[in-house]
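User: Quick one: structure for sequence A, then sequence B.

Assistant: Sequence A:
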Amino acid sequence: MTAQPETRPLSSDTYLQLCRLSIAITQIVFLRGCKNYTFCHLIDGQILLLSKTLKYYEQLLTHQGFVRPNKSYLLNTRYVLEYTPIEIVMCTHERVGISRRKRNRNSDFYTVLQTKIV
């Protein structure tokens, strides 16, 4: 039985307990899933290896301005530089592809992405 994350919305100054560190949500640029692990990329360039799946963090962070453009990434919309129908460019110049099902301009994914990016 896997642990279920708390699904209540987190405030913008909330810290997320990762590894043995408390990381401010605003410091997370993106999360990248790799099988049953997740790599957390921070704004200062650090990369943390986490032992939970990307789905676990998606349930926690969706209400905090994070979007999931494909099965491997969870992006913080605060750090999106630009996006096209096929990819998103992050402030770290990481290019993340958008899955075929989410490429439709009328999809819920684009609605969320447009409202979150200022």
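Sequence B:
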Amino acid sequence: MATTSSATSVINDLIEINNDRVAGFEKAIADINDENIDLKAIFQGYAEQSRKNGQELAAIVGSVDEIETGNSVTGTLHRVWIDVKSLFGGSDRASILSEAERGEDAIKKAYQDALSSNDLPYDAVEVVRSQAQEIYSAHDNIKLLRDAAKA
């Protein structure tokens, strides 16, 4: 399905930040110490969620030449996950979850911006809205875990 240039740009931004989210969670999974092993399963689920999101968004874009396949390197919104990836290390649970929440804040904002942009065609809005609900839920779960770790 062909989309307008601005819609393709918005969707590609979401694909990029989902790719960043996958990379961030994979980095965290690799660096988490055994005492936080339960976080590995949670993070694996969220990485898989973003892989699925990226595939659904790529299907909307349609043309292989227009689909974003990499991680972002520019743009302040997308740099957040890259910064988060470098901060994960086998540190304490609260720190790991605080950094994960920062990344989730960025992807949550990206979805809010996409939905408020008015650049998306109707079928894309439905997909993005559905994905946004999952992202918001993941954000809230990580925040709850972080708050519990600080207590």
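DSSP finds five helices and no strands in the chain. The two ends are 49 Å apart (CA to CA).

User: Thanks, that's what I needed.
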